[in-house]
Structure formats: structure tokens, C-alpha cells
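User: Please fill in residues for this 164-position structure.
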């Protein structure tokens, strides 16, 4: 602190220079948020009875299950979280998959592979047993072979809607 002294007409003026701002006992509490657990016991008691609008009540990300009407809290049953857990009694799969499990990469089926997986076995059996007609149609068709194109499309769309 440096003091400069001036004398004028018998009076002495002293000027002080300070590098810090004068706070005069006041603090800017907007810079220092005081949430639920911070502050004195008296402050917490005052906040519990009559909360100050500038000091928010911090919920730590938890959603409210109601609203405050005057001094009473109104609970809304629809806002209470309900955890729905399926009954897994008799469930045979284990809940854990090891990170050492081998990744299985399989390309999507082509139409030729799908035809081979579904129809080739039946066609070769019919050919060996001589159960093919003059236009190479099966004389004893299976349920899948009897379907028309429209029925097959409906069956596939119903399977897809069950999956989705």
C-alpha cells in the first residue's frame, strides 16, 4: 500500500491505493451456487420452509412425481416409474455373454441359397422316387408347394409383422 500526502491550505489529504476491490462484507452469491447440501443449517432450514426463488432446489436429474400446490405436494400416480420385469422362471439361457465369444459374421441369404435350403431336398427326393409329372411338377406337393403367390406373400408379411 502506497500513501501519497498532499497539503493544501492546512489540510492534509491521504490517498490509499489498493490492488483488490472493496467488498464491504458483501459477496456475489450468484457466482457460488448453494444447492441442497451446501450452506449452513439455518440456511437449509429456511430453504425447507420458504425456498428462495434465486436459489434453485437441485434434483440431481431425478424427475418429479408430482407438483407443488401452495405448501402441499400433489402426487400424480401416472408419473411414478413402474418397472416391468418378465417372469424368468424356467428360463434356460444364461444372462451373461462372454467377451471371448467368437463373432459370427454371416452374409444375408441370396434367393438361390434360400431355394436350396427350403426346396432342393424335396425336389431331389421326388426325382429319385419318380414322383414328378410331365412338366416336372411334384405329383404329391407339400403344403409350401401348394401355396399360390398371393398366399405366400401374405404368409411372409404375417411373419414379418410378428417379428416387428
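Assistant: Residues filled in for all 164 positions:
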Amino acid at each position: 500500500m502506497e500513501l501519497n500526502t498532499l497539503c493544501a491550505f492546512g489540510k492534509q489529504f491521504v490517498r490509499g491505493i489498493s490492488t483488490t476491490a472493496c467488498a464491504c462484507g458483501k459477496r456475489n452469491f450468484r457466482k457460488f451456487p448453494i444447492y441442497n447440501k451446501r450452506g449452513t443449517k439455518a440456511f437449509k432450514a429456511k430453504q425447507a420452509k420458504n425456498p428462495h426463488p434465486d436459489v434453485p432446489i437441485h434434483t440431481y436429474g431425478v424427475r418429479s412425481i408430482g407438483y407443488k400446490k401452495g405448501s402441499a405436494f400433489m402426487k400424480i400416480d401416472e408419473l411414478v416409474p413402474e418397472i416391468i420385469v418378465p417372469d424368468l422362471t424356467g428360463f434356460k439361457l444364461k444372462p451373461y455373454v462372454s467377451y471371448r465369444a467368437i463373432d459370427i459374421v454371416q452374409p444375408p441369404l441370396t434367393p438361390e441359397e434360400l431355394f436350396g435350403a427350403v426346396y432342393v431336398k424335396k425336389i431331389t427326393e421326388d426325382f429319385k422316387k419318380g414322383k414328378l409329372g410331365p412338366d416336372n411338377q411334384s405329383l404329391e406337393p407339400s403344403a409350401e408347394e401348394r401355396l399360390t403367390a398371393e398366399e405366400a406373400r401374405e404368409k411372409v408379411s404375417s411373419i414379418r409383422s410378428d417379428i416387428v
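For context: Helices lie at 41-49, 111-118, 120-129, 143-146, 149-163.
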